User: What shape does this take?
Amino acid sequence: MTMKKWSTLLAVAVTAIGISGAAHAQQFFRIGTGGTAGTYYPVGGMIANLISTPNKLVATAVASNGSVANINGIQGGSLEAGFTQSDVAYWAYSGTGTFEGKPKAQDLRLIATLYPESIHLVVRKGSGVKSVADLRGKRVSMDEPGSGTLVDVRLILAAYGLTEKDLKPEYLKPNQAGDKVRDGGLDAFFFVGGAPAGAIAELASTGGVELVSLQGPEIDKLRASQEFFTPDVIAAGTYQGVGEIKTISVNAQMVTSAKQPTDTVYDLTRAMYSEASRKMLDNGHAKGKQITAENAVKGAGIPFHPGAEKYYKEIGLLK
Assistant: This one.
């Protein structure tokens, strides 16, 4: 073999090794979100785009049943990160609430608090439902098993002296529940998520639904015992034909496992709040404007991942 041929083969081999090495270094990062008609899924897709880097991190938004399912996915290794309600994250980490009697998710770590999630009670016009108390005997969807919504709905019902047995309960995704309300097969459904939610916006455009306020002594008592609920307002006009709605909210959070590398989480956290990301967040979804580094450190509830903590300390938001 001539020296020239040998040099050519060597160059090809080195190139192949380089390509192989680059492919090997590429990390897939799955973010559990929620149903496609909710808020988690589109916001998750937006964040996945922001944090993906060529030949290094390929982030994808994965549709799921929501908060509880995402935490279980992170614990089981089928997800690298996920969106969850702040109350559900705290319960999982501390082994309390809906996770009472289960092993504590002590590896659960916070990347960022994202935005407030409003609790929506959507009712069919003419259903006669003006308060949670009026749901007795009604056909009501409480969202899917594995969702944070279902956990919160049970607490809200209890505040009014109700349980699932007092309703005709169903356990549907928001878009399926919306379809049944529109078709007359359901009286009401609950949804916890950033407003506006796609499924509710679509339904409101038909003029056949109303939103019910969550306020009064029962809600005040609930907030006193469950401090993660905070007063919230869905502004008039958020949904077509719907006036201002006073309700309560929890925080949406992005969480991961302590097992995720510090460098990976540091890089993706920094990418989320870059100047280029700011433009995409402001224009990509109605909740994007609230996804800021300042909001990221509010209402933690569980420990920060060291990579996220490193970034927030660098920019002076954590000591």
Remarks:
- The chain has two domains: 28-115+253-314, 118-251.
- Confidence is low (pLDDT under 50) at residues 2-23.
- Strands lie at 27-32, 57-62, 81-85, 108-124, 139-141, 168-170, 188-193, 209-211, 230-234, 245-257.
